[in-house]
Automatic annotation (TrEMBL):
Residues 363-373 have a biased composition (Polar residues). One of its GO terms (molecular function) is oxidoreductase activity, acting on single donors with incorporation of molecular oxygen, incorporation of two atoms of oxygen. Coiled coil: none annotated. This is Aromatic compound dioxygenase. It comes from the Eukaryota. Residues 354-373 are annotated as: Disordered. Keywords: Dioxygenase, Oxidoreductase, Signal. Residues 1-23 form the signal peptide. The keyword Cell membrane does not apply.
Amino acid sequence: MRFISAAATAAVTLAAASGLVAAHGPESKSEVREFHDRQKTMYHCAPQIAAYNAQRRADWSQKVLGGAPLAAKKYFVDGGYKENQVDPADAAEIMACNPITETKIRNSSCVLAPETTEGPYYHTQGHLIRSNMAEYQLGLLFLMNVGVIDVETCEPLPNVLVDLWHANATGYYAGHPTPKVGMENEKPMATGPRRGLMSAYPRTNEEETWLRGALPTDSNGVAEFTSVFPGYYTGRGTHVHVKVFPEWDVLPNGTFTSTNLIHTGQFFVEDALNVEIDKIHPYNQNPLLAPGKGGRTRNWEDSLNIYQDSHDNGYMPTFDIEFLGGVLQQGLIGYVTMGVNTKARYEAKWTPESGRGGVVSQVPVSSETKTEL
Ligand SMILES: *[C@@H]1O[C@H](CO)[C@@H](O)[C@H](O)[C@H]1NC(C)=O
Ligand SMILES: *[C@@H]1O[C@H](CO)[C@@H](O)[C@H](O)[C@H]1NC(C)=O
Ligand SMILES: *[C@@H]1O[C@H](CO)[C@@H](O)[C@H](O)[C@H]1NC(C)=O
C-alpha cells in the first residue's frame, strides 16, 4: 500500500490551541491525556501558526521598526501570505490548519546528492511517520525544510518518503545512550580508516524514538520537520542523516517498512554557526567540550570525509539557514534540496568490518547509479 500523509489533511482549529493556556498544569490522568492530545494538535498546526505569527511579527516590525525586515518575514514571503496584512479569508484558512501547500522547494542547481553512509545509528523499521520528531529533547527549535528533486527532470518529486535521524543537543542518538561495556574510556582511533572516530555506541534502549522521523514530500516535493538543532560527537561534524524511499508500507504502530531505497545522504551546517550554537545551553554541555576531550570536529576535518566528498559535482550538503526570530535562541529554519535519481535502487547494508572501517556499503541495484563515495 502506498501511504499518503493523512495527518496533513486532518482539520483542526486553533480553539484547541487556546485551551492550552491554563492556570495550572495537567494533573489527573485524563487531563494529562487531553494535554498530550492538544500538544499533538499544536504540532500539526505548528507551521500554520508559525506563518500566522510571522505575519503578525512582520506587521509589528512595520509599525515598530519602521518596516525593518525580519528574517522570519523573508522566510514566509514564499508562503503566499500577503506582505503587510492577512486577508480575513487567508487567516481563516491558516487557522483551519489546511494541508501545507505553501511550501516551495529551494532551487539549487540540479545536481545528484552523493550517496553517503547511513552509519551505525539507523534503526530499520524504527522510525515513525511524523513531522515533529523533537519529543522531549531540549535544544534550539530547528525546522528542516527538505526538498527533493528528480535529477533527470529537475522537477520537484512529490510523495517520496524522507526519513531523518540525528543526534541530540549533547551528541547522543535515541536508543544508544552509553558506550560499549569496557569502552568507557576509549580514545579516538589515531590511524587507519576510522581515524578520529570511536566505536559506535550499541543500541541498548529499544524504546527510544526521539529525533527520528519520516514524512512524505508534498506536491511541491517538500517535507517539513520540526526538531531540535543537532549536537555532535567525536570525529564528526554536526550532521543530519537522510534516506529517501520511493514506496513504503505503514505498520500499525505508525512506523514503516520499505525495501527500496533511492538515496542515503547527510546534511551539514556551516561551522561558523555551529560554533555560536556551541555556546548556548544545552549545547555547551556536550561532553566533548570538557578539558582534554577534543572538542568539536569542523566540517572540513570530518573523519569520514563525508562533508568533503559531498562537494563533488558542486553539491552543497549544507542547510541554508535563517533565523526564525530576531535572535538565535528563537530558533532556526534550515532549507536543503536533494537531487535524487528515481531509477536508482540501493540496498543499504551495515557491515562494520567492510572498507572505511565500519561504514555502510550501499549496493546499487541499478547499474545507472553511482556507487558509494
Ligand atoms: C531552478 O533554476 C533553474 C535555473 O533558473 C531552472 O532551470 C530550474 O527549472 C529550476 N528548478 C526548480 C526545481 O525550480
Ligand atoms: C541526549 O541523550 C543522552 C542519552 O539519552 C542524555 O543523557 C542527554 O541528557 C541528552 N541531552 C540533552 C540535552 O537532553
Ligand atoms: C513497530 O512495529 C514493528 C513491527 O512489529 C516493530 O519492529 C517496531 O519496533 C515497532 N516500533 C515502534 C517504535 O514501536
